[in-house]
Amino acid sequence: MTRPPTVAQRRVIDAADPVTGRLKGTDAQLAALVKRGLAFRHPRPPHDHFLTPAGHRIRETPEPTAAPEPPAAPSDSGVFTARIGGEENATGGPSRTREVHSAWQGLLELRRMTHRDGAVDRPCGWERTHLVQAAALALEAAGHRPAAGEGPGYRVRATPQPEAVAVREPDAEALRACAATLEKAGWQVGEHTEPRTGTRYVLASPRRA
Questions:
Q1: Residue 159: inside a domain, yes or no?
Q2: How many CB atoms lie under 10 A from the CB of residue 1?
């Protein structure tokens, strides 16, 4: 069984950028994470270090010995989360707009760095393992409005199909606009109708090439 990371290494992993997985730490800490397969050094300048899939899994797994912390509001947690629609009491305003813009730019940079051809017009590996969050970020960054509670707006949900999410929006025109945004962001999209209700929705999956 692989040894868990040290306390110092865990701090570096937990402090990684929530979208890109970019790491900050001493040369020794970063080298140790690379040696353990939890990080990699990007071959292009400035040669930053990023979490590998194994490193992401460790960050997303709570420490078994950690004491539970009181819940914090999203704006105070320090971790960006895209709005998938249906959240209660979701805060907005200029600060949220800046957070969304920064997260989207970080995701584009992650695409550039992880695609061999440096392309930013199609989803990267992180998006394929975080389908709902990735699609929701693309929509929110383009200015679409997520549903608040039971109100109007888009909702992004997982589906039984591999690498596919469903986007629902009660307004037909807004639904088509969501589809256009995802297509522009590198997703394959198609409109479908639920047989029982006749409700239209968009099925989207990351484009590979």
A1: yes
A2: 3
- What band does 182 get if pLDDT is binned at 50, 70 and 90? very high
* pLDDT tens digit sequence for 38-57: 889 888 888 889 888 888 87
Q: What string of H, E and C letters represents the secondary structure of 64-133?
A: CCCCCCCCCCHHHHCCCCCCCCCECCCCCCHHHHHHHHHHHHHHHHHHHHHCCCCCCCCCCHHHHHCHHH
Are residues 99 and 195 part of one domain? yes
* Same domain, residue pair 168 and 201: yes
- Asked whether residue 102 is assigned to any structural domain, the reply reads yes
Full strand arrangement of the beta sheet holding 200-206: 155-158, 165-168, 200-206, 187-193
Which pTM was predicted?
Answer: 0.65
Cα 133 from Cα 156, distance rounded (Å): 8
> ∠ CA(60), CA(57), CA(19), 5° rounding?
65
